[in-house]
TrEMBL record:
Name of the protein this chain belongs to: Phosphatidate cytidylyltransferase
Subcellular location: Cell membrane
A Pfam entry, by short name: CTP_transf_1
Keyword tags: Cell membrane, Lipid biosynthesis, Lipid metabolism, Membrane, Nucleotidyltransferase, Phospholipid biosynthesis, Phospholipid metabolism, Transferase, Transmembrane, Transmembrane helix
Organism: Nocardia panacis
Protease among keywords: no
Bilayer-crossing regions: 46-63, 96-114, 126-151, 157-177, 198-217
UniProt EC number: 2.7.7.41
Molecular function terms from GO: phosphatidate cytidylyltransferase activity
Family: Belongs to the CDS family.
Membrane topology: Multi-pass membrane protein
Catalytic activity entry: a 1,2-diacyl-sn-glycero-3-phosphate + CTP + H(+) = a CDP-1,2-diacyl-sn-glycerol + diphosphate
């Protein structure tokens, strides 16, 4: 069988049904997962720094892709202000997050208004500033809830719980989708996502929620059921949101930093809304 160059001895890397290099994706996924587990168990505050770097890179990836599509979001205020939104949750809690978010929105508006000087009116000002605010909310604002979750009692175990459930959702969806997927869920946005995969995500995540909330958090198992269902819903929506953004931009991935996965943002799409829902559910019910 010929490889990509026509050489009978050439071989291509095994790919998944999603078109990914499966061995590379698994290696990167396991490596990242084990590293984050070790950090959360032994040096939990380092997790804030790791996520802060990921937020900065993801914001840069999205801003770069947007500007390639002639959407001139103000990159410097987005990246710097996004770091403020994320980091100020550590010393100041939700007040720091909200204050930094509002200040960054104002700076983005003014920056885009005058980025071509005082003599030239900006083109597509409303569109570009609206998308900048969307990006700010989509990445650093949602990511800040992982910090708020970490700072609560047994916060490292709460963060570990939400991360395990997102992985359960991904694995369950992939396995069920590959084995049984026949009915497309939202074919106009993500043709490979199926209702069978969604059901697999739901089963895996609910089981994962029951186990992690009971064994890690020592709490009522029904909280795990609520959390499991909630995370499947928002993780699926987070994945679909990024798929639609990439579809409108005409790209496959936001970046190329992670072999087999794409960019940092391609790994955070389901994690970001899940961090918020995990904070909301666990801070309310525990």
């Amino acid at each position: 069988m010929s490889g990509p160059t026509g050489d009978p001895g050439a071989r291509t890397a095994p790919t998944s049904r999603a078109g990914r290099n499966l061995p590379a994706a698994l290696a990167v996924g396991f490596g990242l997962g084990l590293s984050l587990i070790a950090i959360l168990l032994f040096v939990p505050k380092v997790f804030i720094g790791v996520v802060g770097v990921a937020v900065g890179v993801a914001t840069w990836e999205v801003a770069k892709r947007l500007r390639e599509a002639d959407v001139l979001v103000p990159r410097i205020p987005l990246i710097v202000g996004g770091q403020a939104v994320f980091w100020l949750g550590w010393p100041y809690g939700s007040n720091g997050v909200v204050g930094a978010f509002a200040a960054t929105v104002l700076v983005c508006m003014v920056w885009r208004l005058f980025d071509h000087g005082l003599q030239v009116a900006p083109r597509n000002f409303l569109r570009d500033t609206a998308i900048a605010v969307f990006t700010l909310a989509w990445i650093p604002l949602l990511a800040s809830f992982s910090t708020l979750l970490l700072l609560e009692p047994n916060g490292n175990l709460r963060v570990l719980t939400f991360m395990i459930l997102v992985v359960c959702s991904d694995v369950g969806g992939y396995v069920a989708g590959v084995l049984f997927g026949k009915h497309p869920m939202v074919p106009s946005i993500s043709p490979k996502k199926s209702w069978e995969g969604f059901c697999g995500s739901l089963v895996f995540s609910v089981i994962g929620g029951l186990l992690t909330v009971t064994l890690l958090l020592r709490a009522n198992s029904m909280i795990g059921v609520v959390l499991g269902i909630g995370l499947v819903l928002v993780a699926t929506c987070g994945d679909l949101i990024e798929s639609q953004v990439k579809r409108e931009l005409g790209i496959k991935d936001m970046g190329t930093l992670l072999p087999g996965h794409g960019g940092i943002m391609d790994r955070l799409d389901s994690m970001l809304p899940s961090a918020f829902v995990s904070w909301l559910v666990l801070s309310t019910l525990l």
